[in-house]
Sequence to fold (633 residues):
Amino acid sequence: MSRFNWPKHSVLVIAVLATWLTTYFGYLTSFNMSIDNMVQQLILFINPLSFLLLVYGAALFIKTSKRRNAYLITISAITSIIMFANAVFYRFFSDFITIPLLFQTNNFGDLSSSVMANIHGTDIFFFTDVIIVALAVKFIPQPTETVRQFKMGRRIYFIATAALFMVNLGLAEAERPQLLTRSFDRELLVKNIGTYNYHIYDLIIQSKSHAQRVLADGSELSEVENYVHANHKEPSVDMFEDAKGRNIITISLESLQSFVINQEMDGHVITPFLNELTKDKDTFYFDNFYHQTGLGKTSDAEFIVENSIYPRNGSAVFFTHSGNTFDSMSEKLADNGYFTNVMHANNRSFWNRDIMYKALGIEKFYDVESYNIGEGQAVNWGMKDIPYFEQSVQMMKDMPQPFSSRMLTLTNHHPFDLDDEDMLIPPYTSNSKTLNKYFQTSRYLDESIKVFFDELKENGLYDNSIIVMYGDHYGISENHNKAMGMYLDKEITPFDNAELQKVPFFIHIPGNGKGKVMHELAGQMDIRPTVLNLAGIDAKDDLQFGSDLFSKEHEDFVIFRDGRFVTDKYVYAHEVCYDAETGEPTDGELCAPYVERATKELEFSDTIINGDLLRFKDGQGDQQPQTEIKGKE
Ligand code: GP9
Ligand code: MN
Fold:
């Protein structure tokens, strides 16, 4: 067109800029992502760029201008379609697209009916870049052949692209440590690494699990079943009368460890209400109970509660295997007439819950949209536990009974921040800010449970319910050993660190009268068998690694996800066998048979998940239940 002398790669530069800006404005207009500070805004702004430079940059290898132009237009069209599809999907699901969701056939029904309704005329905006690229291609003259001496320039281009990607990752990692290994929230991923990279990441994770699944066959299942049935413990029958037919409320006590129970910090009682419960005649309190979670933390604990199977090592099973078939506690309870639901005032995609709950057959998910978070009612990660419990009870009043509600608390979460008015005790005074604040948030969590019990009573739900409560995982990691040592007044060894994985476990049955402190060695794996047995539901043919805690046959052997274990005689940690009584290292041979069994059990559990083996179990695999996600009405 004009006589203006366009630089050689103008079209490429225009394409990158056009798609970059279209993507960024797409983020701002179509997704409801919370941006808390300037750094997050900056990350959001730059996150599409490295990917776009890379894919558009591939054009530099294409020799003829005709093909190069076709390639550039195709890329702009594909990226536009990705953004457009996510925007439409988001309007319906408040979430980004993920592959397992597309393969859950029952979602297609929802999708097709709502796709049309959710397309807006203004969505043409997502294709702005395609139009710009097409115009650029048409009007800007380009070299017909790529010139050889451009090799050096090309190299610099891709090095710069890689550097930009690293800067993006670095900023994201600083904002959200362990983003890729742990914080599996799609919103966080998109915010930090961008939609395009997120889709590639999703694709890698999903195809990895898919490959293992394809190779698996039913014969592996019988081997695991043989092992599990050989270790089967006959459940007790004593408790049925008091528990059967009642609502079951299972509460995840965020980050609560047993070392605060029945203890003081500088003369302040840390958990007065829970302490009372440990002495209460209607409560069974387990003081030798361990968490068995890995990187998936809260979600791993949920996974164990639902399945009595180990979560995965090194990744969150909620994220990697949400397409599997499960035989969950919720599904079982639903089959026996319970209305099953989860109540958690966080966004639905956190830990991939919205998808995983479908696979677990949970009937309803009351997520953050179900709650009214008024002024002063949020701190740290979100809604405070006290208003959360208050509002939850109001929702419970409208549930059909009996119901099974799993509740997840949130305030006692790292970094343990609290508003002044909620600090019921002063902070501790160690070198660890984390531990210092932890006592205060634990105190707040305790208070919230008290409020919850009162609300249940006031609203007539208490007598007809049983309340099961477990600490989900540690709150204080080994990085705080020095401060913990100060509090416990001893030097912390790997033996102590294993002991510190104890979390409180309560079963509260109003009117039962037989409550006591139970000392058996137990773990989260035992929750499913125990709860189902209390409800009088037969689970003897289920594939569970745990067993009923009221059974006389219960075995004193708890395996951690990382391979450590505890028996009544030994504690095995960091490949050292410790005497459980003295805490001193002892002869490794004494632990050897348990090491073998722990390894085998963890391997069996991994085989089930990796091969999606439960789909081969009779009566499984054909139904895909729907989780209704409850928003404000
Ligand atoms: C988030 C909450 C906390 O929804 O469950 O997760 P965590 O970081 O403890 O796994
Ligand atoms: Mn947690």
The chain has two domains: 10-212, 238-547. DSSP finds 22 helices and 19 strands in the chain. The mean pLDDT is 91.
